[in-house]
Specification:
The protein is 6% helix and 45% strand. By secondary structure, the chain is mostly beta strands. The protein folds into two domains: 144 residues; 33 residues, no CATH class. Strands 1-2-5-6-7-8-11 form a seven-stranded antiparallel β-sheet, with no helix packed on it. Strands 3-4 form a two-stranded antiparallel sheet.
Amino acid sequence: MDVGYRTGGFSLNAGMSYNDAKIRRDFCLIANPAFDCTLPGPAGEANDLLAPSGSRLPVTPKFKGNVVARYEFPISDWNGHVQLAANHTGSRRTDLRPAQAAIKGGLDSYTTVDFSFGVKNDLWSIEAFATNLFDELGVVNTGVSCLETVCGDPGGGTALGGTFYDTLIKPRIIGLKFSRDF
């Protein structure tokens, strides 16, 4: 869902999504047309249940949203703006399979805030900005270098146990942009 409002130089835009993303059928070791995890595979191998029907999809938050407030105003022969934006990503599970998800744990929700102030005319543009203003440490995904049940032992029962590799959002960035149109 998206909604926007504008009056004069002020605009407010917001968006959100709600995702009840779950699998509809059991997830088996060997996919077969019947999706019956009790049936043996084509060569007679075991067809174990890896995730039951109704399991939430990994790295998909139930809720995600953003809001952007912007004010545009004249400054002499220039057009100025100030903008504040906030983005929220809800908590997520790390894996479809319950055993692997239990080893890796869940991914916490995080919220970032961005700010910018700038001016521009027909040729030049100058903008000061800060992204992830409060330096939020958001984790996008996490994994291990081999099977979670071997390398991801959180108790440290293996040589590599407890070694997780997180994919993080960008840290705080503060900068100044100059541009010229030709």
